[in-house]
Amino acid sequence: MALLSREIRHALRRLRRAPAFSLTAILTLALGIGATTAVFTVVNAVLLRPLPYDRPDDLVALSHTLQLSGVSAVQQSDATFLLYRRASRSFSAVGGYTDAAVNLDGTSAGPEAERVAAGLLSVDVLRVLRIPPLRGRTFTDDDDRPGSARVVLLGERLWRRRYAGDPAVVGKRILIDGVSREIIGVLRGDFRFPSASTELWLPLNLDPAKVEPASFNYSAIARLAPNVSRAAATEELTRIMPRVVTDFPSPLTMSMLEQVHLRPVVTPLRDVVVGDIGRVLWVVLGTVGFVLLIACANVANLFLVRAEGRQKELAVRAALGAARGALMGQLAAEGWLLAVFGGVAGLALAVPGVRLLQALGGGIDIPRLNEVRVDGAVLAFTIGVSVLAAVMCSVVPVLRIGTMQLIGALKDLGRSATAGRDRHRARMALVVSQVALALLLLVGSGLMARSFARLRAVNPGFDASHVLTFRIAAPPTTYKTAVEVHRLYESVLADLSALPGVESVAGTSRLPLTDAGQETGAIWVEDHPTPPGSVPNVHNQIFTDQRFLKVMHIPLLEGRGFGLVDPARPRHEALVSRSFAQRYWKNESAIGKRIHPGPSDQWSTIVGIVGDVRVDGLEQPPAQLVYFPLVMQQDSQIFAPRTLAFVMRTAGDPSTLTASVRRVMQRLAPSAPMFATRLMTEIVARASARTSFTLLLLGIASAAALLLGAIGIYGVISYMVSLRTREIGVRMALGAAPGEIRRMVSRQGLTMAGVGVVIGLVAAAGLTRYLRALLFEISPTDPVTLGGVATGLLVVALAASWLPARRASRVEPAVALRSE
User: Fold this and answer.
1) Which residue intervals of 241-323 are DSSP H helices?
2) DSSP 218
3) Domain range for residue 620?
4) Sign of dihedral through CA atoms 779, 780, 781, 784?
């Protein structure tokens, strides 16, 4: 310990005597360690840390696969959930749920009405997750029965925001969608289920006597019983599932099970919560890992220069009896100290880096982002990365000292003391590795940039400029019938159209590129009859009015739009997209053909064909859409969607109208607050947010890698020029022109860069395939990107070599020879 303490003190003194070297090395390592730690902090919270529930490895999600056109997976129908809960023995509890949104009514003395994300839970969900209440109690079996007393659980965030954390809130009543409910408890703030935005929970209240076995509108989670595997649970559910036909008889149920090959799937709950964001995060973590390697290579090069600059000093120490191991230990101690300081500085940089990632990641809905924090695992990772950096930075110079002829360094042998290719190989190898790694990052960034450009160039099928959107939900207690709902919509449309600067207004059940209001279902086509026992194709369905096409600038290709809506006599009309029409009537017109969305609905006549619209994502092909009027007849009843999005096209900036629109809505519908107010351009931008997020982080990492790589080439060439001063002087004395000297020096830099580019291209051919799922209409081995990046990197290498080459060409021969 005394020896270690002495070595540390001596290393600190040596580093203090070289402040430029020390600060450069520490900042370089801090950049690499800080970036890597920041990304790992997010990866740890989102992908690695267990879910915040008791025994999270026992938690699973229950779903199904099936074979049906347009659909490959579904969740639960009320019938399958009730069957699994009642008949399975592989689970200690099975809970069903669905997410929703509700209106909290305002009062004259309290806060105004607002729209809140809610979860509809069966009583077993909280038992599965083992969530205790913060105040009051949770749901009981009596709360979850049809016709039971109306109760609600609040989230801590809503409790503190709307009730100022009033401890007497339990037992009070609250109006939800116009219905009075008793507040029975408050759940802690870190419980965010089914989504991160959920703020209150209602009982699911499924009625076994009124199930719809073919409507998969619910989800289910379960806790595995002791000593039961997921495979065993899946096998049991597979045996149980056919009983849904006998327990909940329905002709459609039997047909569905026979035709679509429904199969249960048991998945770890964490996989469902995380989704597919893991691919992006692992790519980003690998990217910053490359930056760390480049940073370590740069610092190792600095160490080599420093070690060779101290060669005579070390030789004197060796001549005085210092063991070679002790000399190597001195260099290693400096490397470890720099890594420690770089790790501490990197951890300090990681904190704002994490905040930046949280701000950027919020745009792509990264799950569990609220759980991101620096914990023991992150500290252990930072220590591990710092140790790795210390080894990588010091191992090459330490081994180099171990092979040097130290005693020979005491003899001034002119050129032999300063020249020789073996003295430069280590530095050159480090620079080559930097260039290869930088090329990998630049290729990844280039591929994402080209993919992003292709994505932004996609025509979504509508014009998003100058369009403001918002949604409202008409509560059934205030607007009891479809006629009253439609009357509200018409009043809103009339008053919004009268606002200054508004050109046109329309209503629709679903906005393109959003999930809100998404409706998919079977569509029966009259002249393409479904074979007996088969299930019709599934398509996206949108309920809208006759003004929607005008507001969104969606072209009407053939026929006409909807006529005026009369709730007393609903029109049985439909519009279809071009892709839908081509699927069923490729060689004839779809106008006059008939379809309907339900086996008992009346036929709707296709009166118009409209342009294709991308509703599921810019990277997805245009959807085969069916548009129905806002008011139509379904199952002998008049139907109108209770939740509607309004789109407003304006002459100027639509955001300036938000306050005016809010006043109109508060006057016309105080119990139906507006929510999800956004510009349509923001919705389109959000559709490419994941690609832009990945591109931004790859771009930052690539810029850092390119800068570090250029610095590495510049540093090595400059040092080699300084060592070859006498040689260059001799060459110039013998008649070498300055241009020849510049070309000689620049050639060395280009040679190193060229070798690195070749190695990087070979590595890129194998590694970029992991980006395939993130790219859009771009091959992972896109020759334009590979060629452009390679050329650009060689140009940067030439520029980094030019300054030392220019300095070398200005050497005065007499001065160079006299200095030696």
Assistant:
1) 244-247, 251-260, 269-274, 277-309, 311-319
2) B
3) 475-671
4) positive
